[in-house]
TrEMBL record:
InterPro entries: BphY/WalK/GraS-like (IPR050351), HATPase_C_sf (IPR036890), HATPase_dom (IPR003594), His_kinase_dom (IPR005467), HisK_dim/P_dom (IPR003661), HisK_dim/P_sf (IPR036097), PAS (IPR000014), PAS-like_dom_sf (IPR035965). It is a multi-pass membrane protein. Residues 208-454 form the Histidine kinase domain. It comes from the Bacteria. This is histidine kinase. The keyword Transmembrane helix applies. It is an enzyme of class 2 (transferase). GO terms for cellular component: plasma membrane. Keywords: ATP-binding, Cell membrane, Kinase, Membrane, Nucleotide-binding, Phosphoprotein, Transferase, Transmembrane, Transmembrane helix, Two-component regulatory system. Pfam families: HATPase_c, HisKA. The chain crosses the membrane at residues 20-36.
Length: 465
């Protein structure tokens, strides 16, 4: 008890003394009034009890509101739990979605928030910055900051396994109480891939749209001028020209839609999608949507589908299957058979292995390859058409924008040349694979395969430098 009394703050001890003195004085006055007959016994007892209760309440209130830090130990405890405490600073640092690192002597990582660990793929034990970030300009900036120098932000880019753009902010931080190492470096990494992609998307859209729309717009202008001139009273010419104008307008609409779709996919290509997709249900939806085209060309669609669930964005995977099946129907001869095969739980070698054989002499090319571990499993979708086939020299360019194979034109509903480019970028975003096998005279087989069991960690969203 004496220790507790000794630890009381001087202000509280003074208030307690004053409160007790006032209560005692008031009680003595009431007792004197009772002795001289001025108050009855009951009134005196009630008044003394009231004074005691008010004094106790006042004492407790003062103790709660005015209790300062009694000693250095309590003061340190208060500072450790205050708004500027190291614990709160660490909590705020860990909550930041931006990668932040503190680099000490020799380039060793002393502190890295969870966003930085995810961004750089750091394990539980941090090492030297140069082991996880192989960018000479950033390392030079960190070395300058460790000498106390102020440096400008550094930008760097990586193209594999996916394109990414990062801006690094480096600042010197004065060390506290460490004369051997007076400076440390704070490194903040800002992923600006989306910004760069958005800028390029706008430039590419304007360039591609202006180039590809020039021909159909010129055709429309010519037909409109003809219809306003000597053909305005010719019903047969008017009907024929209006039909061509309608086809050209549809083509421009498809082109703009495909360009917008491609731009959206490219913008998010570096971000691994979340969720899962039922591939068998996707195939059923695609068949239902394309049923009119299948019936129009008297195509026989053979579907072999195992139950399979892939990791990824369902809408984008639906677009992949839709593009490939639509191409297979478009380029197959009327009355031919198109085969669609869905296989589950495959290794990478099994997924890349041809599943719908075309025969000897077929050419095969990988258009997109996943970066996977040996234990990863995949779901594969293979589509075989009954078209003219594609020569080997044309295979590498199939996923280029607006590239069309000679002899593969499909009439008034000719494609925009963007479908396979869209497929490739979607598969890249899902960290999957995309292959083509073709034999002139026997058709082509397009295969896409996606991870299904072991998902790549989030650190792959922006690959390590």
């Amino acid at each position: 008890m004496s220790n507790k009394r000794d630890s009381e703050a001087p202000l509280i001890r003074i208030r307690r003394r004053d409160t007790a003195a006032v209560a005692a004085l008031g009680s003595m006055v009431l007792i004197l009034f009772w002795l001289f007959g001025e108050l009855g016994l009951l009134e005196t007892v009630v008044a003394i009890a009231t004074i005691a209760a008010l004094s106790t309440f006042y004492y407790l209130t003062v103790r709660t509101t005015l209790n300062p830090l009694p000693d250095p130990a309590s003061r340190r405890e208060h500072e450790a739990s205050g708004p500027d405490s190291p614990a709160n600073a660490k909590l705020m640092l860990d909550s930041l979605p931006i990668p932040v690192l503190l680099i000490g002597a020799g380039g060793r990582i002393e502190i890295a928030n969870p966003a930085a660990r995810e961004f750089l793929g750091l394990g539980p034990v941090t090492g030297h910055l140069s082991a996880v970030l192989r960018q000479p300009q950033v390392l030079e900036a960190v070395s300058a900051a460790l000498r106390g120098q102020t440096v400008d932000p550094v930008e760097y880019s990586m193209m594999a396994p996916v394109e990414s753009h990062v801006r690094a902010f480096v600042a010197p931080v004065a060390s506290q109480g460490d004369p051997a190492q007076p400076w440390r470096a704070m490194l903040v990494l800002s992923d600006e891939t989306s910004i760069k992609r958005a800028d390029r998307m706008r430039a590419d859209f304007l360039a591609n749209a202006s180039h590809e729309l020039r021909t159909p717009l010129a055709s429309l202008a010519g037909f409109i001028e003809t219809l306003r001139g000597h053909a305005k009273d010719d019903p047969d010419a008017r009907d024929r020209f209006l039909g061509i104008m309608f086809d050209q307008t549809e083509r421009m609409q498809r082109l703009i839609n495909d360009l917008l779709s491609l731009s959206r996919v490219e913008m998010d290509e570096h971000v691994l999608p979340g969720g899962t997709a039922d591939m068998a249900a996707i195939i059923d939806d695609v068949v239902d949507v394309l049923r009119p085209q299948i019936t129009e060309k008297s195509i026989t669609l053979s579907v072999e589908a195992d139950p399979a669930t892939a990791m990824g964005d369902r809408d984008q995977l639906l677009e992949v299957v839709m593009n490939l099946v639509e191409n297979a129907i478009k380029y197959s001869e009327p009355g031919a058979t198109v085969t669609l095969q869905l296989s589950n739980d495959l290794t990478r070698d099994q997924a890349e292995r041809p599943g719908l054989l075309l025969g000897e002499g077929a050419s095969r090319l990988t258009l997109a390859a996943p970066s996977s571990d040996a234990g990863d499993r995949f779901v594969a979708v293979r589509i075989r058409d009954a078209g003219k086939g594609i020569e080997r020299r044309n295979l590498p360019r199939l996923s280029e924008r607006f590239y069309r194979v000679d002899g593969q034109k499909s009439g008034p509903r000719e494609g925009t040349g963007l479908g396979l480019a869209i497929v490739k970028h979607i598969i890249n975003r899902h960290r999957g694979g995309f292959t083509v096998e073709s034999l002139p005279g026997a058709g082509s087989v397009f295969t896409v395969f996606l991870p299904v069991m072991k998902r790549m960690p989030k650190t792959s969203q922006t690959p390590r430098a």
